[in-house]
Design brief:
heterodimer; A: 217 residues; alpha/beta; Double Stranded RNA Binding Domain; six-stranded mixed sheet; 6 helices; 40% strand; elongated; B: 196 residues; Rossmann fold; five-stranded mixed sheet; three-stranded mixed sheet; 5 helices
Chain lengths: 217, 196
């Protein structure tokens, strides 16, 4: 096989496999508004309930929303949890909208939320999972050098949901979800070339875009 | 160097490697709880030895799986002081006012357990704490006994070395503080009524 053919095959692999598919959904339940001096907070559901939303996904979402708009403030999750400790920890935070009145019944919590003008709490659920993997890759090294040979691939799905809660009305005003699937692969002929479908990063980007657009009306 | 000396040195180095263990030092930040201070009650706190400068060494069974020594220092003590002193004032030894309401709180570590990725055959560290807390009035009459637990887990993921284990311990301690604050908040009325 000539060098140009090999190059074409590699280029085809990169362009056809290294991409992912994103699906975004939005559902609005009631009318809502937010002004530039009001804030939102992102909070993930607890691992106590089986939720496994990754810390780096939450960090990505916080910084992505912060960069993409200046129509409202976003209080970083950890800062919010420290200020309101112990009321929004994994084991104590409200897990559903029905749990909100119990927390908001605490005068100290309600007063601080009002002083800090925190209007919406966005509950994040979901995770990135590897659905299937296959192939084989082996590497060897000797005195004369080393190398790898083989082909491995896997399918990832990043599915996340953001539920927007109005803290003053104690209602859910809407939901946004992002579902990204992608196939990653590592072909190796002497040198392994990882072609990764960045599903989690794409989900972060898609969900943050959608949350920003949700509040932009 | 003759062969015998070489053999001894090799054996000695192998033994030394075999006996080496991980040493974790735990220090954590627990925020001040957002709770109402009860000005009318003062508290005297006592802790068992496993809370003050506790160093955990694994038992024989665990040693076969992973030899880890965990130095908690006074982290646990600071956690309990932080929570209780957000609800009550610290009782002063020299304060002998008979009308002052004082409660005695004794904290004991009942259980500290953990699972490593090797022992649980998964990709995370899981940590549990269980404490027994005895509340007494100033005449040492028991008012209440609480069991407070804390749980933390951390995927190994992006973390290097022991960092995931340390994070799981910190999360479990923070969870203990949260559960303790909620328990105290719920039971404070009962305590106030009893000592009144």
């Amino acid at each position: 096989m000539s060098r140009s053919k090999i190059k074409i095959i590699f280029l085809l692999m990169i362009t056809t496999v290294g991409c992912s598919t994103t699906r975004i959904d939005e559902e609005v339940n009631t009318a809502f508004t937010i002004t530039d001096d009001e804030s939102i907070v992102l909070l993930s559901n607890s691992y106590h309930t089986g939720n496994q939303t990754e810390l780096d996904f939450m960090d990505c979402l916080n910084s992505s929303i912060s960069k993409k708009q200046n129509a409202f403030e976003i209080i970083p999750t950890r800062q919010f949890q420290n200020l309101f400790y112990p009321w929004f920890e994994p084991s104590t935070a409200p897990q559903s909208i029905e749990d909100l009145p119990k927390i908001l019944g605490n005068e100290l919590v309600k007063e601080k939320l009002s002083v800090m003008k925190i209007k919406y709490l966005i509950k994040i659920t979901g995770e990135t999972k590897t659905n299937a993997s296959s192939g084989a890759l082996s590497c060897a090294a000797g005195p004369g050098g080393g190398g790898c040979f083989g082909f491995a691939w896997w399918d990832d799905t990043s599915a996340y949901n953001a539920s927007v809660w109005d803290l003053s009305q104690e209602t859910s005003v809407g939901n946004v979800s992002a579902n990204v699937t992608g196939t990653s692969m590592i072909p190796a002929i002497v040198i392994p070339i990882p072609i990764l479908a960045r599903t989690q990063s794409n989900a972060c980007d898609g969900l943050s875009d959608q949350i920003v657009s949700f509040f932009s009306g | 160097m003759n062969n015998a000396v070489k053999k001894i040195l090799i054996l000695q180095s192998l033994l030394l490697i075999g006996c080496s263990s991980q040493n974790l030092v735990i220090d954590t930040f627990i925020p001040k709880p957002l709770v109402k201070m009860n000005e009318s009650i003062s508290v005297k706190l006592t802790f068992d030895d496993q809370i003050q400068n506790f160093i955990f060494s694994p038992e024989e069974l665990q040693k076969k799986e992973a030899s880890i020594e965990i130095n908690f220092g006074n982290t646990q003590q600071k956690l309990f002081e932080n929570v209780f002193l957000s609800f009550f004032k610290l009782s002063n030894e020299s304060d002998n006012d008979p009308d002052k309401k004082i409660i005695l709180i004794d904290v004991k570590l009942d259980k500290f357990e953990y699972l490593t990725p090797q022992t649980a055959a998964n990709q995370k560290y899981s940590v549990w704490f269980k404490y027994i807390i005895n509340i007494k009035d100033n005449n040492e009459n028991s008012i209440d006994d609480w069991v407070v637990t804390g749980y933390g887990e951390q995927e190994t993921g992006i973390f290097q070395g022991d960092e995931a284990f340390k994070r799981a311990i910190r999360i479990a301690l923070r969870d203990t503080g949260a559960n303790l604050s909620i328990t105290t908040q719920e039971k404070i009325e009962n305590i106030t009524n009893t000592i009144s």
